[in-house]
TrEMBL record:
Name of protein: 3-hydroxybutyryl-CoA dehydrogenase
Biological source species: Oceanobacillus limi
Keywords from the named record: NAD, Oxidoreductase
Claim: NAD is one of the keywords in the record: yes
Family of this protein: Belongs to the 3-hydroxyacyl-CoA dehydrogenase family.
Binding, NAD(+): G10, A11, G12, V13, M14, G15, D33, E93, K98, S120, N144, K274
NCBIfam families named among the record's database cross-references: PRK09260.1
GO molecular function per UniProt: NAD+ binding; oxidoreductase activity, acting on the CH-OH group of donors, NAD or NADP as acceptor
Domain 3-hydroxyacyl-CoA dehydrogenase NAD binding span(s) in chain numbering: 5-184
Family matches, as Gene3D superfamilies: N-(1-d-carboxylethyl)-l-norvaline Dehydrogenase, domain 2, NAD(P)-binding Rossmann-like Domain
Pathway assignment: Lipid metabolism; butanoate metabolism
Residues under site feature: Important for catalytic activity: H141
Length: 291
């Protein structure tokens, strides 16, 4: 089987990023979301990202135009998946929502289609149980920002076939990504480490160890991280970070208990760049406000 058409379900930060690299790699790509406004924003984001790539010499004008020609949007999941070879679910980390998406995709997609989830924590065996093709489902975990981050974690469920893993790996490589194959366990590899670091940063902020700016600067310069943990939390969404920590706390124990300050920020609606305010304040176009 050759993968030529990819459907990405969810046009949020991760979904639109996955759709971008998919279309850039030459796959006929459909990004699906229930919100027409979010779909328009996703397409505009792809256009602006491609334009920046051309300006910086990363993309040619022809590559930019080909990308946009390969990228399409739809608000109807049932019709979007009818010719799909690979469906990548990239909706929020809510089991009921993921189950609903996978059940619809499983019902309406061709028999050969592979299902993948961009989940950072949820078991692929559990996700596979929502479908009639658990052997054709695996986790395909991208990282934010998708067009810059090189890694994709591939996590197989109990019944995931070798062929499914191979096809997902080849697709990721065509998107310009490096892959690692991870055994199924809560949080996989990267989410467990990232959750611990991000949660500890919130504990330090809560305890007054240092300012948010200095905590992030210390981690960037002292540990050579490309982005500080509080900056990263704002980027991925503090609500998403909190959901991941709650799941890891439930499955792996006390060391993943969310910091009270993180809980407080989310209750206040300070969930990061997408809300205009998290640990830091942001302008309307998502740029951090310098103090």
């Amino acid at each position: 089987m050759t993968i030529s058409q990819i459907v990405v379900v969810g046009a949020g930060v991760m979904g639109r990023g996955i759709a971008y690299v998919s279309a850039l790699a030459g796959f006929h790509t459909i990004v699906v979301d229930v919100s027409e406004q979010i779909l328009q924003q996703a397409y505009q984001h792809a256009k602006e990202t491609a334009e920046k790539g051309v300006d910086r010499g990363k993309l040619s004008v022809e590559e930019s135009l080909n990308l946009l020609n390969h990228l399409h949007t739809s608000s109807n999941l049932e019709t979007a998946v009818v010719d799909a070879d690979l469906i990548i679910e990239a909706v929020p980390e809510k089991r009921n929502l993921k189950q609903q998406i996978l059940e619809v995709a499983d019902t309406h997609a061709p028999k050969h289609a592979i299902l993948a989830s961009n989940t950072s924590t949820i078991s692929p065996t559990e996700l596979g149980s929502y479908t009639k093709r658990p052997d054709q489902l695996a986790v395909m975990h991208f990282f934010n920002p998708v067009h810059k981050m090189r890694l994709v974690e591939i996590v197989r469920g109990l019944e995931t076939s070798d062929e499914t893993v191979r096809m997902i790996g080849e697709t990721a490589e065509k998107m310009g990504k490096e892959t690692v194959e991870v055994n199924e366990f809560p949080g996989f590899v990267t989410s467990r480490i990232s959750a611990l670091v991000g949660n500890e940063a919130f504990h330090m902020l809560q305890e007054g160890v240092a300012s948010a700016e200095d905590i992030d600067k210390a981690i960037r310069l002292g540990l050579n991280y490309p982005m500080g943990p509080l900056e990263l939390g704002d980027l991925v969404g503090l609500d998403a970070r909190l959901n991941n920590l709650r799941y890891l706390h439930e499955t792996l124990g006390e060391k993943y208990r969310p910091a009270p300050l993180l809980e407080q920020y989310v209750k206040a609606g300070r969930i990061g760049r997408k809300a205009g305010k998290g640990v830091y304040d942001y302008t309307a176009d998502g740029e951090m406000v310098k103090k």
